[in-house]
Predict the 3D structure of the following.
Amino acid sequence: MSMKTKELVEQFLKKEEETIKSLRKEKNNLIETINEISKRVNKNGRVVYIGAGTSGRLGILDAVECKPTFNTDLFLGVIAGGKKAIFKSKEGAEDDEKLGISDIKKIKLKKNDVAVGISASGETPYTVSAIKYANKIGILTVGIASNPKSTLVKISKCKIAPLIEREIIQGSSRLSSGTVQKIILNMISSISMINAGKVYGDLMIDVQPTNKKLVKRAVNIIAIICKIPFDKALILFKQSNRNARVAIIMHYKKCDLNTAKKLLSKPNFNLTSVIA
């Protein structure tokens, strides 16, 4: 007899609670990995997510969202099968080791870049081969998998491998493995950007005002940090050439746009010290 929806919902919730418990056991590995990534991001190193299927799509999702949120191009996503595989499964691409190497070569990795392999099983040939190549040329490699004993975990310099022993639907790695991958990627990108000064308090001060919602958010951020009404923050936003961080500097330093930009371009510029 089929389970009722209520019972299935309870099972899914229980399973995801177990997933979070598994991830908590990887806390030290998360801290170490993010610290290593942050060091390189602060030197303009790129974070390249590599994966196939769900894992590849999640990497692309995280990378794409970093531009409007943090105004950075340092996060990239590479998926087996290329752009078409984002929307439609491309069978066989994940088994192509040569494709993994050729795709990662196209990125032209540099010494401060980071290659992050994402694979539920940790055995995806495409991903494993790309990480092996990244190891060979001497850049930092990170393995994210649901199998701590997998090849990807063994060959990666940093690893985050919460054990997911069984999916509710056997073999469907888009479920608990997908959940844990998304959480890990959220932490990697968000915390490394916080460490890079892209966030003040809990406010994304480098938000890109590319639509009405984000314009309102940028103006609100200016209003909150500068402690001024929304209408005055809007004027400052326009004067700053639609740049929240610049607007905040203009307000606290009582300077014009060009002066604020010069201050912003200084090495190790700290917005906190300006506000203080």
